[in-house]
Structure formats: structure tokens, C-alpha cells
Amino acid sequence: MTLKIAFLASEAPVAQSARAALIGRYGDVAQDKADVIVALGGDGFMLRTLHATQNLPAPVYGMNRGTIGFLMNEYSETDLMERLGAAEDELINPLRMTAMDREGVMHEALAINEVSLLRAGPQAARLRISVDGRVRLAELVCDGALVSTPAGSTAYNYSAHGPILPIGADVLAVTAIAAFRPRRWRGALLPKIAKVRFDVLEPEKRPVMADADSISAGVIDWVEIRSDPSVAHRILFDPGHGLEERLISEQFT
């Protein structure tokens, strides 16, 4: 069976060259006419592609033409149809961020990896954390905090010493970034259905910014985060190299 493919590439010359070579070999169709969307670049471009195509039925198959490729498959020009035919499908629900900025403007965005809060000034942030309407940590003094999905747990979350989560786990990771008080607090694991709220304490003195997969809400007063089961991103991986295997392997490197 011949699949109709839409090829997308980052602006990197190596990705653009790969796109031209693949189009020459396999042709190219519009995204809304494609059976499969092939993204050429790194993980950042893959995230942008998933966000941009989330309302289309075609799954996304990434090939690494960037610097990082956790969400990507190895690049090859010669056997793409066979690889697409054998690829395994992973479904990922993103996080939905709802935030109010300091001007009273509401912001909404989806995050496949994580929603993060970071101090926006010279002083540490002071945050209050509530889960499902109940205050769980009255004060966290830190450089920031984040909520991560299993798919994003090896990204910023892992760099901040958060846990790697199995891809099938119905949990979210809440991770502190450079926590000062409580000094020993290392975060929490919450049910996937939990709603997490961060309130910024002393926002004038200690401003905090928030973003969802690098989509910024600016300097905020508060942010609420929850998994959104109404959105499902479909990602294709070569057999034996899916997210579950990568999440396990990452813990032994």
C-alpha cells in the first residue's frame, strides 16, 4: 500500500535538504490530505508539528534531523514506506494550561511535555500549590516548578531531577526547580485527572512567568494545569523504539 505523505521540516539546512530528497522519492501532499505527516528536525520541531496538526486525522512520524531526537526515529531515505507500514502508534494526552497574567488577561495553551513556572526577577519565587482545590503546600520558595506528562518526563522535568514516568502511567509529575524552602521537597506524583494550581505569592516583588511547551503566558498571578483527554496526539515509532522503550533506556544511561 502506498501512503500519501506530507513532509514538514525545520528551517535547519540539513532538515530542508532531507525534505527535498524525500519529496523527490515519495512525493508530497497537503497536510489535510495525508495518511501520515513526516516531521524532519529535532524534538522542538516535533512538538510544534504536533501542536499545529492536532486537529488532523493523520499521525506524525518524526525523523531526526536536529540536535535532540527523543520523539524522533532515525533518519533514512530508502525504506520509509516499509517503516511507516510497520510503525507503532502512541497516543498522548497533553496538559491544558489556564493562566491569568498580571494585567488580568486569561491565557490558555496545550503542553505535550510540561507546563513550567520560572522566576522572572532576581528574587526566588514564592508559590502556593493546590491540588483539586485543596492547598497541599502553602509556600514553596524556589526558582520555579513544573508539571510534566509521562512523555515529557525525560525533558525539562528530568533535568530538574524529577522522575521519569512510564508512558502508560496515569500520573503527572510535579517537580520543583532549585527548591530553597522546603529544602528537601522533591515534588510529587499525582493522578492524571488531578487539577494542579499554582498561586504566585508576592507577585509584585517576586514575579513569575509561565509557559506551556515554550508558549508563554507572560508574568502571571496564577496558573491551573490539568490533563486534557479530549485531545490525543498520535505519534508513530519504529518497532522496539517507542516511547516506553526510550523511557526505560534513559534511566540506564
Automatic annotation (TrEMBL):
Keywords: Kinase, NAD, NADP, Transferase
Pfam families xrefs: NAD_kinase, NAD_kinase_C
Superkingdom, taxonomy of origin: Bacteria
A GO MF label: NAD+ kinase activity
Biological processes per GO annotation: NAD+ metabolic process; NADP+ biosynthetic process
Reactions mediated catalytically: NAD(+) + ATP = ADP + NADP(+) + H(+)
Gene3D superfamilies the UniProt entry points to: Probable inorganic polyphosphate/atp-NAD kinase, domain 1, Probable inorganic polyphosphate/atp-NAD kinase, domain 2
Protein name: NAD kinase
Protein's organism: Pseudooceanicola lipolyticus
Lineage: Bacteria, Pseudomonadati, Pseudomonadota, Alphaproteobacteria, Rhodobacterales
